[in-house]
Every structure is written in structure tokens, then in C-alpha cells.
Amino acid sequence: MKTILQTIDLKMTYVIGKVPVNALRGVNLNVNEGEFVAIMGPSGCGKSTMLHILGGMLKPTSGSVIIDGEDLAKMSDGDRTEVRRRKIGFVFQKFNLFPTLSAEGNISLAEKIRMNGNHKNDFARRTEILRLLNLESRLHHKPLELSGGEQQRVAIARALVGHPAIVLADEPTGNLDSENSQIVLKMLQELNSKFGQTIIMITHSPEASAVAQRVVNMRDGQIVN
What's the rounded mean pLDDT across residues 166-172? Predict the structure, then answer.
């Protein structure tokens, strides 16, 4: 089975004032293509720092983070941005949809950015994603006309268009009530099963982590299982 993501002795140290703070203390993680992995841990354990490094938004102090054969830790900011555009989809807790665009517009913009005019859009995949997320009847609505659960489903669709190697989900149910949380988690599970989409989800919720195939626990900047 292909390894789609690997971190090797990943470390991240912040300096606050003159005091070094070790957010990551040598993290080693392997994720196979098609896995749904939940990274769990209490606040301050390093999981958010981990997500930002995996997404190419932060450069680690040392170590390697290899996504689909490319080591982000060795890249410039510009090169990491390019890998992020081509290979990584994001689902955020706060949705981060463009308020002036419809659901369709938000999805199409992400698709254009990821594909960058180099490939034809996969209409069949896109249609199936919208069907599984039950969004066909909501495509012409703007975010303020959608419920929180519907907005998060649009955000998931946006993350999945363009065949990203990995989808990173940051507390995707953090702003949802229990009913919508279960709907969104079930849909992530179905999308992973249907498309073999690799998903790495950061969460502090046992209910959310229960839908993943594997749970990785973090504490004090290290993986503890």
C-alpha cells in the first residue's frame, strides 16, 4: 500500500519572548493512501501545529514532512504554496466560505485554483460528491442562506474537488450541533469509502474520532500510541 504522508522526527520550536516552547518533539507518522486518520489530543498537545505543518502553512524547525513524494520541509514558501494548491484540500472549523459567492461559486473557484487550467474538470466525480453531500438543491444559495451543516458540506465539497492527495480537516464539527455533526462525520466517512480519499482529521472529540479508521493520540508534542 502506498504511503501518501510521512513525517520523520518532526520538531517545531517557537520562541515566546526569549523562552523556547517545543510544540512538536520528534513526531513520526505514516499515513497510507486512502486512510481516514483522526489525530486526537488535549488543547496544547501540538495537534494544530501538526496540521499547519502538514498543510504547508508552517515550516518545521527540523525533520521531514513528505506528502506524495515531496518533502515540504525542504521547500521555499512559494514551493510549499504550490504543493498546497495541487495536493491538499482543507476543511476548517469556521467554514471560510466566500460570503458573496453561491455554494456553486465557492466550489467552482476552488476547482479552478486547484486545476489551474491544466486539466479538464472531472464532471462525474464532482456530480457524485454533490450527490453524496446532498447539495444539489442548495448550489445557488449563498452561505448566509445555508445552515451551519450545509455550509460545512459546501466546504467539504470545495476541499474534495480537483483530486487532492490529502484532505486535512481541522475540528470539522466544532461549530455544529450534535445532529449536524453526525451528518457531516457520516458524509466524510462515505466520501473516504467511495473515493478512497485520504483524510486526516484533527479533533478533540471521541465521537468524531470514532468514524476514522485509525486514531493517533498526541500529548506534549509527541505521538503516544
Answer: 93
